[in-house]
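Lab meeting, item 3. Inverse folding demo.
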């Protein structure tokens, strides 16, 4: 779906955002009828509280609450108000600082998202006019990049396999004049992507490596996204409870495509490359097995100790390819480990970085745009945990300790030599409804990266 602000010429209802310390002064601006309704409703300007007040001419004045302090506990709190309003067009009236106003505007757009592919008709919507002073074009580009990510994750796997993920990349490329090449099926072996082929070969839906490029000038940015369109666990079959959400295992691919959409829509002057190893990890007679030792594009051999640790395998070949062009900045995003969720929960995107400049810029930008991240270490003493006796690397170290870190260390082996390698172990799913984030697929880290790019790449 497309998220946008209301037409500026449309008639609108004023929406007053009133903090508790502004309540009395705002009350004094109301006519007697509206003020009386305010009393009857016992409106106290609590977070998310709304009051629909009829004015003397029969129109509606709406009051809500939003402050910088509330943002600490509830990102996009304005979205709570937006979800309670009747269909119509609204215009913000507030003395909020510019940074908070920007978050309010984005939160409102994101609150308008719903996954409508299988619905008979969309729900009615409360529209917002772009608040004065914000960059409406940028805000819409960010919201629609996030909507793309959500749509891709939310689509069930019967309609979102490797081929459909390729089609999504091609559709994005067509809009922005980008180029796409795809290596598919057994061609993966002849072209040097044995790990991608091994993971995807058991499915009747052919595995592939999707390669999108755009731009010939400026610094280079390569995004690598895990595109496991469904993960049964392979021969190490997942239990039913663990398999239920595995349509979201291509959340890394969905997130890098959403970020690419933002970058392309905003016309950033850089050389962009997006690599997506797209597979389905299935079970059949030719599935890869525990204890197999597989080659990789980089030349490192990998012992398979769990076929359910497949995401790092497909990323490994893609990272090796990415490093052959020596990009200025290399980022991988993947729904990679349950260990990351145990460490920081579903709302925070943990990341790893070899680049102090990237890490500091990202932390600052994440705070500015309310897109939480947390840095975890490439802890080198754990390197021995990913070194088995019979191969160069182990895809699933025994013991279950430091699972996110050892996965990140595994990936770093395939990004050695990169000027700046940064890995995000995201969840990609909103388990409970929150302001501007309904239950379902969600982007993580993309807005923070976008905000940090000018500093990271010198744009």
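The presenter then showed the designed sequence:
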């Amino acid at each position: 779906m497309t998220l946008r602000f209301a037409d500026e010429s449309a008639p609108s209802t004023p929406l007053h955002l009133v903090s508790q310390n502004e309540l009395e002064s705002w009350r004094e601006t109301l006519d007697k009828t509206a003020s009386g309704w305010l009393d009857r409703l016992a409106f106290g300007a609590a977070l998310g509280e709304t009051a629909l007040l009829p004015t003397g001419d029969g129109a509606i004045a709406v009051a809500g609450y939003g402050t910088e302090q509330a943002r600490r506990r509830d990102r996009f709190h304005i979205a709570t108000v937006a979800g309670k309003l009747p269909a119509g067009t609204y215009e913000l009236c507030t003395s909020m600082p510019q940074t908070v106003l920007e978050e309010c505007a984005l939160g409102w757009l994101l609150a308008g998202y719903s996954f409508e592919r299988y619905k008979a008709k969309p729900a009615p919507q409360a529209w917002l006019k772009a608040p004065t002073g914000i960059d409406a074009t940028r805000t819409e580009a960010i919201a629609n990049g996030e909507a793309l990510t959500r749509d891709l994750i939310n689509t069930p796997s019967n309609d979102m396999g490797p081929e459909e993920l390729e089609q999504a990349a091609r559709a994005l490329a067509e809009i922005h004049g980008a180029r796409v090449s795809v290596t598919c099926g057994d061609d993966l072996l002849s072209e040097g992507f044995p790990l991608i082929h091994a993971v995807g070969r058991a499915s009747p839906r052919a595995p592939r490596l999707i390669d999108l490029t755009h731009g010939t000038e400026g610094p280079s940015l390569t995004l690598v996204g895990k595109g496991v369109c469904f993960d049964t666990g392979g021969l190490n079959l997942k239990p039913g409870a663990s398999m239920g959400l595995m349509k979201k295992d291509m959340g890394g691919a969905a997130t890098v495509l959403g970020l690419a959409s933002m970058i392309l829509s905003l016309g950033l002057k850089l050389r962009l490359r997006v690599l997506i190893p797209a597979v389905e990890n299935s079970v059949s007679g030719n599935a890869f097995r525990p204890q197999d030792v597989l080659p990789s594009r980089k030349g490192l051999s990998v012992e398979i100790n769990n076929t359910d640790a497949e995401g790092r395998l497909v990323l490994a070949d893609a990272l090796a390819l990415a490093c052959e062009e020596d990009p200025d900045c290399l980022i991988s995003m993947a729904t990679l480990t349950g260990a990351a969720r145990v460490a920081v929960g579903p709302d925070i995107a943990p990341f790893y970085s070899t680049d102090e400049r990237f890490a500091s810029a990202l932390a600052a930008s994440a705070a500015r745009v309310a897109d939480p991240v947390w840095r975890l270490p490439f802890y080198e003493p754990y390197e021995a945990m990913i070194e088995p006796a019979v191969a160069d690397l182990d895809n699933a170290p025994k013991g279950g300790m430091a699972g996110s870190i050892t996965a990140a260390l595994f990936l770093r082996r395939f990004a050695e030599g990169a000027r700046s390698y940064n890995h995000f172990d995201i969840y990609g799913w909103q388990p409970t409804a929150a302001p501007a984030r309904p239950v379902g697929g969600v982007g993580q880290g993309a807005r923070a990266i976008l905000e940090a790019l000018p500093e990271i790449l010198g744009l």
